[in-house]
Design goal:
The chain has 224 residues and is α/β, with parallel strands linked by helices. The chain contains nine helices and five strands, in the order βαβαβαβαβααααα. The chain has a five-stranded parallel sheet with strand order 2-1-3-4-5, sandwiched between helices. α5 crosses α9.
Length: 224
Amino acid sequence: MSDRPTVFIVDDDEAVLRLLHTLISSVDLEVETFRTAQAFLDAFKPTRRGCILLDIRMPGMSGLELQRELRERGIRLPVIFLSGHGDVQVAVHAMKAGAADFIEKPFNNDLLRDRVQKAVAESQYADQTRMRKDEVEMRIATLTPREQQVLDLVALGNTNKTIARQLAISQRTVEIHRAKVMDKMRAESLAELVRMVALLDFWKKRPPGAAPERPAASGPTDDQ
């Protein structure tokens, strides 16, 4: 089994599966095909990466039901739905529930390849940012309650003088706490520290199942 990103195609139409396999393999992506949603669930391992190309209407478990099952299992692979003309409203509903995209049948081959490649790239970036988020959370867990307060106020752009006034402590004490925060968070600069907090805030606010984009860092400069 390859550890490369894989496009998982789930469609009950054998002819469609063959066509999609040929199209996606042509851009040097790994492809696995499944005739039913249950067959995909039975074979899938949570550590796999890539995206899912999923038909909406299938016998047994539908594409929407599979999407819901994936969400309940915490599987975050981007889902691109293949929808017939009469399924567009359903596909839009699926996107609101976290799907990455939908493509109407009959589809344009180049468009489909482009959308799949974009979804795979976003999935890879999501994996990287998720690992970074987990690292930041582990570092924050080492902070004392007071250091956490200082971190929160620094990330909001407050100066040491303002933080000292808000916490009713001396400015020197703030400087000591701030130095400990920088050390425990392994931040080489204040800007890097703010980016860590911005990353966590972004993950808390993003829609369920949405692939993260690069959050814009904002906050104090290093001379504060």
